[in-house]
Amino acid sequence: MRAVRSLLDAEGWRRAFGALALTSAMSVAGLGIVPLQAHAEVAAADPIDASMRTCLARSDMSSTVGQVQCMDNARIGWKSALDAAWQQLQTKLPPAQRKQWERSQASWQASRDAEKPLLGAVFATTHGTMYALAEADMQLQPVRDRALALRSAAAKISAGGDPPHRPRACNADAQCEHAMFDLNRYYRRLQAKMPVRSRSTLTRAQKAWTAYLNATATLVDERGRVDIIGARVATLKRLSETVGND
């Protein structure tokens, strides 16, 4: 499980990050959930990941600035991959699904835009170079995850698979209900630990994420919905363990 390592020194974080960056999946404590995108991780590493690992291992990129630059370059690479996957998906979508996917993509982007101020507010309360790396990672991984999700959706449509069954209401799905319980728990924990002046950034980010969940839940099955919630639980947990750290 990927988590903030508050006891690592900066050099220790750099060593640990090489392993952390290999996967975007975070199992949710108590749930045993691994986000849907993680199932693609058993395949050979994407060239973007391989390039980032090479960059991270370079002696001339061993400083905090250099390591962050490696991750920023990977994020830019994954954003290009995301855009390409989105264009490919659009050409394959049946007309009946096109508007739903457009809503999902627009709400995902709005959620990412709202998340940036939240990350800034949380990491502004921390001290230590390791947190610069953690913030860069948290900016990178959601872009990577979305690119992989769009690639997967395009591949499934190309293969002619049946569309996913519409999920039941969350309160009729024990895993979904459990995931939402943990989500609300970590949301309240993060809210309580954040400076009062910054709590509005959390409210806006969570509202935007909820809109993304609602727009996307109709495009995935129950497992996919729990994966989306599980990834958010992991994010809120990680932020709640990070805010205010020295």
Helix fraction bin? 55-70%
**Total helical segments:** 8
> What is the distance, rounded to the nearest whole angstrom, between the alpha carbons of the first and last residues?
22 Å
Return the domain count.
Answer: 1
CA-atom Rg in angstroms: 18 Å
Mean pLDDT: 85
Helix-strand sequence: HHHHHHHH
Notes on the protein architecture:
By secondary structure, this protein is mainly α. It has one domain (10-242). The chain contains 8 helices and no strands.
Entry keywords:
246 residues; mainly alpha; 8 helices; 0% strand
Helix-strand blueprint:
Blueprint (H helix, E strand, L loop, with lengths): L9 H11 L26 H11 L6 H29 L2 H29 L6 H29 L15 H20 L5 H18 L5 H21 L4
Describe this structure in a few short sentences.
The protein has helices spanning about 10-20, 45-55, 65-90, 95-125, 130-160, 175-195, 200-215, 220-240. The longest helix has 29 residues, at about 65-90. Helix 3 packs parallel to helix 5 (about 130-160) and helix 4 (about 95-125) packs antiparallel against helix 7 (about 200-215).
